[in-house]
Write a structure and sequence with these properties.
homodimer, 598 residues, six-stranded mixed sheet
Amino acid sequence: MSDKISKRLDNLRKAMKKNRISAYYLTTADFHNSEYVNDYFKVREYFSGFTGSNGNLLVTPDKAYLWTDGRYFVQAEKELKGSGIELMKMGEDKVPDIYEFLEQNLNAKDVLGFDGRTITVSQGKRFAKIGKDKGFDIKFKKDITCDLFKRTGFPVSHAEVLSDELCGESPSEKIKRVREILKKKKAEALLLTRLDDIMYLYNIRGNDVEYNPVLMSFAYLSEDISVLFLQPEAVTAELKEHLNRADTMIMDYWNIERFIGNLQPKTRVMIDPGQVNYSLFKRLKKNCCVITGVNPTVEMKAVKNETELKNMREIFLKDSAALTRFMLYLSKHVGDEEFTEVSAAELLFKYRKEIAEFRDLSFGTISAYRENAAMMHYEPGSAGEVRLRPEGMLLVDSGGQYNGGTTDVTRTIVLGEITEEERRDYTLTACSMLNLMHVKWLSGCTGQNLDIIARKRMWDEGKDYKCGTGHGVGYILNVHEGPQNIRWKALEKQAELKPGMCVTDEPGVYRAGKYGIRIENLLVVKEWKETGDGKFLEFENLTFAPIDDRGIDRSIMTEQELKYYLEYQGSVVRALESSLSGEEISELKKYCGLEAGI
Amino acid sequence: MSDKISKRLDNLRKAMKKNRISAYYLTTADFHNSEYVNDYFKVREYFSGFTGSNGNLLVTPDKAYLWTDGRYFVQAEKELKGSGIELMKMGEDKVPDIYEFLEQNLNAKDVLGFDGRTITVSQGKRFAKIGKDKGFDIKFKKDITCDLFKRTGFPVSHAEVLSDELCGESPSEKIKRVREILKKKKAEALLLTRLDDIMYLYNIRGNDVEYNPVLMSFAYLSEDISVLFLQPEAVTAELKEHLNRADTMIMDYWNIERFIGNLQPKTRVMIDPGQVNYSLFKRLKKNCCVITGVNPTVEMKAVKNETELKNMREIFLKDSAALTRFMLYLSKHVGDEEFTEVSAAELLFKYRKEIAEFRDLSFGTISAYRENAAMMHYEPGSAGEVRLRPEGMLLVDSGGQYNGGTTDVTRTIVLGEITEEERRDYTLTACSMLNLMHVKWLSGCTGQNLDIIARKRMWDEGKDYKCGTGHGVGYILNVHEGPQNIRWKALEKQAELKPGMCVTDEPGVYRAGKYGIRIENLLVVKEWKETGDGKFLEFENLTFAPIDDRGIDRSIMTEQELKYYLEYQGSVVRALESSLSGEEISELKKYCGLEAGI
């Protein structure tokens, strides 16, 4: 592998020299700053060998550096071995970020190169600022890798139309709401480039990115017109009719730059600088007034409406039943049937597929046995064929795309004997998850205010998990969705948690080389009560899969936590009673530690 | 009162007309953006009648508006009654802040006036921006109130020199540290206008603002020179010698503008835009390069050194003993001696004065009986002579300035019968205070992360207190000190809590017209332990005054809270054992609910 990478980097360096570029920056992004991208865009992976979802590569004539975050440190160290690429651990003390690095290492006469379509406005502006201060130039118009990296075809799929009954609000109604917000922001138009926002706005879906039901698209929305830019191959008769009802015209995806170039000069166009790509922004700035702000669609999409919530409640119940059936089967048969990490994931997939509304998985299932689970984003199979034995723990983080919602759930299954240390950490994780599920707060809080409720039990013992506690989840859309999250350390201004927003609740304990535990439910923000002191909010829980009672040491739970625990396990049994067989229910009760019924 | 105010506003409006000003803005600030100011600067109070420490007045030809924060809503409503001034409740929904208000109400051809010396750079810039957008002008060079408001003399007092033994670090050493930070920020000089920062840097104190031991001063620090600007009357022979040792020259306070005007053109001068006044900034910008950033002295001052901490521990013990003696005496004699809110505060003052290191109070004692305590910043006596009876509760929030530290402590004393509701809220308050005292957290957190630990017990019952949970406290300096605090709602970027920083821990329950409860200790951040997951921090408690056991309902405490409570009460008895008489100790044990000793 490392030879192959060295050769690729050599070729890249030759192209850099030819183009007079002294440092070339490769990101993980497509032209839409998507978190997950089609293979077409995996240029950073091609040149570094690192397969994680977050990583940026900087190549200089004699060195190369890869930045990634805490989820991927272990994996990146493995995958970069022998490549000569230096791992830059984001967020660690004394590790400069890309901006600091450029400031420290690039000088006058240097040229920084990158494909401007794979960088956001915010990033591009910072690069330009540093370049100006330090006197180096920037080249962003050319992708110098195009001859070096033989790409797969550009992703394309047929557009699928979702019914208003499934979405609860028609595109026309959503467009009307966006226009009202634009008016308030004194913008004449919105340029939308975020794929899931576009899918949400027009109630359409696609299949251009694995697990993310999106279409390569742009949208332009003014007071008078609504334009959706799609590849011609994506357009169907049904779509045309659907968009016609929403007074939306279709244009060719590849014409977006030309369209922008033809806009009335000085049009006040709003863009989200954290989303729109730098090339598009530079084109827009040539003749329009650019107004920056968060896309109005971001919060609209995050706040689920009553129809979406109703569908989600049903789908989460079905998804929980499939997961529970899997957990019970695996626990029962791990001693007498052969299972590997991969075959376990396949069994769970089989149960999910039986659900009528099933469309796809919402991300690649993480099925990680014992020490493999210490890697938060472990890919089953990557460590060879790992056989499960009736001992230790299996972490399964998975989810499905359904007509009715997108699920994301993690359970850690106790397959047999575990150590006291493992049981203690399992219990802490369960308590953390349950404590957050039950928190009540004054309206106005962000996830940053709430995070410590989950983490407190860990911090009290000097333990911590190196990731956020939770993230938003889309509705028949991307499994990671903003703007809300649950994190103690804010990288940017945090979004207020509002009724209808959902977040995962997924604390964990990770012990490199030993084990990993994570328990994850999905919660929805809802109104609790209004008192003389203000409006208070709480969470509604959507996930009803059991917590493995064999992992629990009740003696280290507080009275309150034990109450939460028993209540939760009871609620799982009640929720699944009609979906499981009588035998399964009695197994479930035992699995839950509810011997004498509920 | 309201007639008097109307007349004053009429006169102000005449002056506005004469100066062609359509809206005049009056703040609470002196020329240094101090939180508390000498009477000389109380121009907003003069024109509005509102006496609170935070409030800004905007006067237009036919209306007037006063902005203040939640601590003062009740008081402001009372004091503004009949004045025609509209109360603008800061932070409430739908109440515009001053910027939004100006945007909505001022138009082209209008002129906004204010004294630029009483506005910070940040505020002035925002005014200027709104003015530019809306087309209105700004006049900031003239104080049009000078003929209308007969001021007291400009505050002045003799400079006092603190020994290095008291401060733990000499001015020369502190100046060296500042210069290192300036070098890193690529600044050639620092213009310091914040009074407590200047006192801290040069180890001097004064008496120019009630309770705040500061001198009217400016400072200018470059790589080569250190200049302290003081009024000539403040300078003593001892001070000259002291500053000489620190290579610091003295200039006249009133020459600061001229000095700035004479700086080498293009000098890169750093200022804190949240601190420096707008007039000074405009002068500086004429010939210098202005670099903005937080004053390096802010964090230096906030992180107490070992000498300061050692002195503080001793002083807090003595202060706690004085307060405890007062609490015991009052509890015992409230039935047979005559007490008022004011005389109770005087008794406490008497006990404090007996401490050898006592200098002054650190703020006006709040002694608030029953419903008066619902006003967070109530001034005893303002509701007439309020007699204490052996029933209900007395809230006493007080502190002292000592050679060895500044204290701030609140206790709510149960004088006799209280209701079940009062006891419940008293217990919640005690639990909130104790829970925060015991929190442990991963290094990197801000007070925003921790606030919910104090507030959780309240929020679980739909209750909330409308103020922060805690603030920093100076060392023989201002009782409110940044940058750290404990607040869930951040108005600006929060400061990381670092070892050596201290914060108050003062949750409460306030029921307008009924009662108010607050319990406040002072905590210092310290290292707890380092594990494989990172460095963890915790608090050390400095306040050892009892919690009134008659206010406590142990049945609603969790097991953990009861443990914290009994441990705390025990620690108070142990801490005060050597300072109190045998009789007082046995009374204290009873007061603490520790019948059988500890």
